[in-house]
Each structure stands twice: as C-alpha cells, then as structure tokens.
Design a protein that fits this description.
The chain has about 375 residues and is of the alpha/beta class. Helix 1 links the parallel strand 1 and strand 2. Helix 6 crosses helix 7. The chain contains 14 helices and 15 strands. The strands form 2 sheets. Strands 1, 2, 3, 4, 5, 6, 7, 8 and 9 form a 9-stranded mixed sheet that branches. A 6-stranded mixed sheet has the order 12-13-11-10-14-15, with helices on both faces. It is globular and about 70 Å long.
Length: about 375
C-alpha cells in the first residue's frame, strides 16, 4: 500500500484538485493522510467534505500550528503504507503517478521524478534532471560531503517505509519551510535517489510563492548554500546521536576530486567555456567549473531581458550572438539550466554537436 501525505497551510483554493488527483489514480491500493497546519481559509471545510465522502481512505490531521516538518512528522506517524509519497496541497499528481513509482520501488528505496510547471512566459514546461550514475551519490556524500539532488520538490519524492523510519521524525523548529531538503539529503545518506524523467506531478507557481522571491540569483544561491549548511549540521547531530559516520565538510581541496568523480571528468583544467543559462543553477555551475579549474568567458541566455548584462563577471549574449566561439574566445558551451533539453534542441538547430561543441554537467553540489 502507498501512503500519500498531503501537507497544507491556507491552500484551500487548490486543495480539492490535489485530493482529487490522488483519488483518481490508476493504482488503487493507497491511503490518503491530509495534514493541515493552522489554516485560516476554507481549507478545513474542504478537507472535512472529503473525509465525510471517503472515510475509509482519507484521514485528516488538524494541527493548531503550521510548519512543513511538523506536518511531515504528523503524517508519517499515522501512515501504514510500505511506500510513503508526499504532496504539497498546491500541486497535484498525474493519474499514473502511483502506478509508476510502485514499479520503481520494487528495486529502489527512494524515487524522484520530473514535473511540469508554467514557465515565466506562462508556457507549460517539463522540468527534469540529467541522467547519471545514481549509485555514486551516497559515496560522494559520505566521502566528500558532495550532494546533488536536482532541486527535488516535495511533490516529486517517495520512499520505502524502512528508509522513512530513518528520517522521521525530523527537526521541526528550523523547517517551517524547505523541509524536503532535509528529507532528500538524509535519504541519500542511507540510500540513493533513483531519478526518472517522467513528469508525474504538476508543480503550481502562484502569488504566494512570488512573495518569497529573492532579489537575484546570487541571493538565491547564498540562501541555498546556507540552507544546505543547516541541513548538514542537523543531520550530523542526528547521525552522531545514533553512532553513525558524519557527513564531512566539502573543502576546496576536495572539491575538484569530488566534482570530477561526479561528472566523469567533463571539465578540463585551463579550458575555456561559455555558460548557457544565467539563473540560479548557472550560478552553481560557474562556481563549480571555476573550482574545478575551468574558465568561464561569457554567458548565453534565451531571455532577451538579460542580453548585454554583466553577470558573474562576464557578459550575457543572445543565442545568435553567443554561439560564436571563435569570436568570443571559448572552446565549449556548458548547459546550465533545468530546461536543458530545450537548450540542446536550440544548439543542435544551430549546427552544434553534443559532447563536442556543448556538454551538460550531470551533478552540481547543492542543486
């Protein structure tokens, strides 16, 4: 059985769609646990209307306080399933989500997958990770403190019960939000992340999220770096109390070695590169490439509002102007965006060859 845990705080306007997406799954052996944290909108009315109609399937937890970690803990405490799947109340599953992950969990303890979301131009876009050797990840984390998780969101992760029992209960104080970061890092310590490209969840972007936006990509990168630092500290406290080996600090001395192990030596010391993409992921890529000995000479981006701007010490060009390595003085393009499949098509249309003219890094720390 799969235990689906929906966590909610004042997302009443979206909650019904999230619940219906679970109830309409092609895979039918599931229970649904809805944890509401101190909502003041119509959420609890929506929840109880479903509980009344589906009392054998749905369990409601109405907490007097909010917080993502607290909701995870409360939901897992009641879960009876062999597989635990998480869902934010403002997202929803596609109908075959549970059917697909159940098949994957026959072999893998932790499963992540792609999603669909609306882009900045309001187009429905698929977001997924690069394909890589997933078995390297626990080793890189334990040996170097090198973690890469593809920015997996709550609604795109699931795990086997025996793994969840190692993670929950998790600290609540520091994780009112971004609790999924703690979950996926600790999961990787004990297991792996089997990532599949199938977009099985719709990730909703809306006005409440807009209120959480940062000033620029550098500010976001700093926030993410601090988040992972806190996650590592909290996890090491837990590991120490249980007599487990701690996650080491990823030092500058060890970075290059870990980075090349993760990426198959695709970045060469002294080689010059153009970065395609100028967002949060690209900030991570620039930092990683420079630490590994590569040199970034310019950036390329599809967003016209960025053209001509100086970013990370280099100028951002349009695809038409930027795909000219002789003029701009680089040897290869590195794709640094979650929309890498679309960028690949763009570069191929310009007559470029993958692995010769451009590459895509498989793993970037804290991504």
């Amino acid at each position: 059985m799969v235990s689906v845990i929906i966590i909610n705080h004042n997302y009443g306007k979206y909650l019904g769609e999230a619940i219906d997406s679970v109830l309409n799954q092609t895979y039918r052996d599931f229970e649904l646990i809805i944890v509401d944290g101190a909502s003041t909108d119509e959420s609890r009315k929506v929840i109880m209307s479903y509980v009344c109609r589906y009392p054998q399937i749905i369990t409601a937890v109405l907490k007097p306080t909010s917080g993502q970690a607290a909701a995870f803990n409360a939901g897992f405490k009641l879960a009876r399933g062999d597989i635990i799947a998480l869902l934010d109340a403002d997202d929803y599953y596609y109908p075959d989500k549970l059917e697909v992950i159940v098949r994957q969990h026959e072999k893998y303890d932790f499963v992540g997958h792609g999603r669909k979301e609306k882009s900045s131009t309001n187009e429905l876009t698929e977001v997924y990770a690069m394909e890589d050797d997933y078995e390297k990840r626990p080793y890189l984390l334990k040996q170097y403190g090198y973690i890469y998780t593809y920015n997996l969101i709550t609604s795109c992760i699931s795990m086997k019960r025996h793994l969840a029992e190692k993670i929950f209960p998790m600290p609540e104080k520091d994780y009112v939000t971004f609790a999924d970061c703690y979950v996926k890092v600790l999961a990787q310590y004990y297991s792996n992340i089997k990532y599949i490209k199938n977009p099985l969840t719709y990730y909703r972007t809306h006005e409440k999220q807009a209120m959480m936006k940062f000033g620029d990509s550098k500010e976001i990168a700093t926030f993410v770096g601090n988040l992972y630092k806190r996650v590592f500290e909290n996890i090491n406290e837990k590991l120490k109390s249980e007599g487990e080996a701690l996650i080491p600090e990823l030092t500058d001395e060890k970075f290059k070695e870990a980075f090349l192990l993760a990426n198959g030596e695709v970045v060469i010391e002294g080689k010059t590169y153009a970065i395609y993409g100028a967002g949060v992921r690209a900030d991570h890529v620039v930092n990683a490439v420079e630490k590994a000995g590569g040199k970034i000479v310019c950036a390329i981006d599809s967003n016209p509002s960025k053209w001509g701007i100086k970013w990370n010490g280099v100028v951002i060009y349009s695809p038409t102007d930027g795909i000219d390595k002789e003029k701009l003085g680089y040897e290869q393009i590195i794709i640094a965006s979650i929309y890498y499949e679309e960028i690949k098509k763009t570069l191929i249309n310009f007559g470029l060859e993958e692995n010769k003219d451009f590459i895509t890094l498989q793993s970037i720390p804290n991504d």
